[in-house]
């Protein structure tokens, strides 16, 4: 259960203020079908994070435990520091918008997640915990917890949540996970 709750919390916090959250807000403003946007976020995140977690688990098979400990611990710290940098709002590729709310969200959200902080966090969490199902379920729930409110209440929430403070909290969380991985009890991979 630690993998599940760590994935939910870590990914939710990392997603706040992320470019994919801004994309969800854009898509919700563009389309009246809010449920289709949410389903697009769900399916694209499930596919993306399933592949990411599988990559994280594969890494544990090809990298020595000692090297993996330093790789995962150091990467958590790098992701934590990366969270301090705000994302730039890039305009989504408009060619996908003509396919409707679900398809546009599915494709654009999947593409936006590639190389994203939450995708990398999912790889790291899977490598750390070796629990594919719990990490994927937790990371998908984390993305949904951060994005579904954006779809339905976005404009109001943007005025009330200070993104800089959320990024700082996420930075501290990931750096702490990194330090615990590096200097804590020996992980079970």
Automatic annotation (TrEMBL):
The chain crosses the membrane at residues 36-60, 66-84, 132-154, 166-184. Its main location: membrane. It is a multi-pass membrane protein. InterPro entries: GDT1-like. It holds the Pfam family GDT1. Keywords: Membrane, Transmembrane, Transmembrane helix. The keyword Transmembrane helix applies. It is found in: Membrane. Belongs to the GDT1 family. This is GDT1 family protein. It comes from Neisseria lisongii.
